[in-house]
UniProtKB/TrEMBL annotation:
Keywords: Transferase
UniProt-listed SUPFAM superfamilies: Acyl-CoA N-acyltransferases (Nat)
Molecular functions (GO terms): transferase activity
InterPro entries recorded: Acyl_CoA_acyltransferase, FeeM_cat
Domain N-acyl amino acid synthase FeeM catalytic core: residue ranges: 2-128
Pfam families linked to this entry: FeeM (PF21926)
Keyword Secreted: no
Protein name, entry field: N-acetyltransferase
Superkingdom of origin organism: Bacteria
Amino acid sequence: MTPDQITLIASDDERALATISVGFDRDAGLLADSLYPDEVAGLRAQGARLCEFTKLAVEPGKHSQEVLAMLFHIAYIYARRINRCTELLIEVNPRHVRFYESALGFERLGPQRICPRVDAPAVLLRLDLSHCEQELARVGGHRKMAGRIRSLYPLGFSPREEEGIHARLFQLG
């Protein structure tokens, strides 16, 4: 981990189930700067406090959506509530764009390009973290709603659970 990044790992007693890294727009900038410099600079010029989620991996299985939602929620707490970020960026393979748009509310920010880090096509997506905040406050922890709406937010934590997680993360620094 560097001061500009933190990696979160969800695990059971035996193995890692999911990982996500949260990168902050500090001295080193963001990974998205290399492929989408104009788009990222445009958000900075508007006063956005940027972060990016990278290295997202989830073990396939029966509970993978729940694990993804909970890990995303913890990464959101770290980015928004502790570091006061306003905008989240992700670079995703084009085949995953619709999932991020419908499940979390991301919007396209940049066109498809070839990412040299992974030698694969990528699309830059952005999420206004106030949208995430509103959705988590509205449906977070209401797991029964997950079957009725196309969103990961109901699989996240309840507002009360979020407060406890925030307090523990804040104590860790």
